[in-house]
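Page 42, continued from yesterday. The earlier attempt failed because a stray header line got pasted into the input along with the sequence. Redoing it now with the clean sequence only.
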Amino acid sequence: MTVTDLGDSLGYECMQDHYEDGNVSTGYTSDLLSDVMANAPDESVLITIQAHKNTVAVATLAGARAVIICNSRPVPEDMVDAAKSEGIAIFRTDKNQFTVSTEVYEKLKESS
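This time it went through. Structure tokens are written below.
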């Protein structure tokens, strides 16, 4: 499933739509950025409440294709700018990490 396919199927708000539309094969949920760096797999979507530009840097290092910001957290402009320059999609939803994790899992499972 591509980033665009996942974003369209979930219906979350797209905060940054200038991204590389690569394959998403899994998700990773964490709010501890050092944990993401150490454990998030390539081609993942990062599910978090950490809405700042460091999240984009960590997603890039981890090989994540997109970041989903939960709980309607505000997404600052410097985060959007960083994501645009790195080709990382940003989506936002009012749902919590547990709910988003299950929704991403189900969408990825359906597409395999």
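Notes: The helical segments are 3-10, 33-39, 53-62, 77-86, 97-111.
Reminder to self: strip header lines before submitting.
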